[in-house]
Amino acid sequence: MTRTALGVISVLAASTLLLAGCGGTDEAADNADSVTVDTLKGEVEVPAGAKNVVVLNSPAADAAAGMGVTPVAVASTKDQIMPWQKGVTDDVADDSLINAEYAPNLEKIAEYEPDVIFAAPWNIADDSTYEQLSDIAPVIIPDTESANPDWDEMTEQVGEALGKSDEAEKLIDTTKDKLEAVGADLGVDGKSYQLISPRAEGIYFGNAAPLELFGLKPGQHQTPEEINKFTLSAENLDELDADYLFVWAMDDDGKKQVVDNPSYDSLPSVKNGTAAFIDAEFATAVNAASPASLDWLVTDSGIEDMLKK
């Protein structure tokens, strides 16, 4: 599924303690020369007030823009821009920042003279690549080995690096409150979900953890250990027994793989009208989530109609 990047962050404890009585975390960052961010590669020092931001993973770009810092470049093409990014980061999309294997183009990135670079783990193949990228600017990678780190931890990390922790917290709280309110209105608390993507080698389960903000709970095979790894065979289709089933079929063959299965019509979600075929935009919104994508999920994806059934 789509690539994503998220992580856990922290400010220097001493600075926070000294300035706690004088203002919030953003004020502390403003009064320091740099902030320290926990990343997958250890602690990284980022210059205070970083403005020239280069982003190799789009969720971090969404988060930065939501805090008022539009990146100078985002590794994407205009064709890959999602609806929630239009008018925000589409003018800074630059697919030359990474190659087909997602590795960074060091020369191109350096041309933007970044203050900080946000990257995903899969952008950094080895320590040599990381060191060369760090020679250009501090590199912020989510502090997790997970392919699908939590969107709120990613937002916190971006906010910390940009000296905008207060704004990050507000974005997170607003997003959570919005989805929780919709879920409460629809009465879906405790109902289960599964999100699948049929492929030639079997049916994969995709990350859709943000759906839990509506009050839904993960169904079978929606565990971190199984997402994007476990494949369900055709003869076990009856294990798709969640209350809500979201199917991301990338082509007609993928769709036929599911609907032509003899067990399909007997699935609880199909019988109840709560099985939905979703598009790449919906899948990206939950798989590579950000505050902006989750706001779009509520307002423009049609998910309320899906959950009303």
Automatic annotation (TrEMBL):
Residues 52-309 form the Fe/B12 periplasmic-binding domain. It comes from the Bacteria. It is found in: Cell envelope. Coiled coil: none annotated. Residues 1-20 form the signal peptide. Pfam families: Peripla_BP_2. Keywords: Signal, Transport. Its main location: other. Belongs to the bacterial solute-binding protein 8 family. This is Iron siderophore-binding protein. It comes from Brevibacterium sediminis.
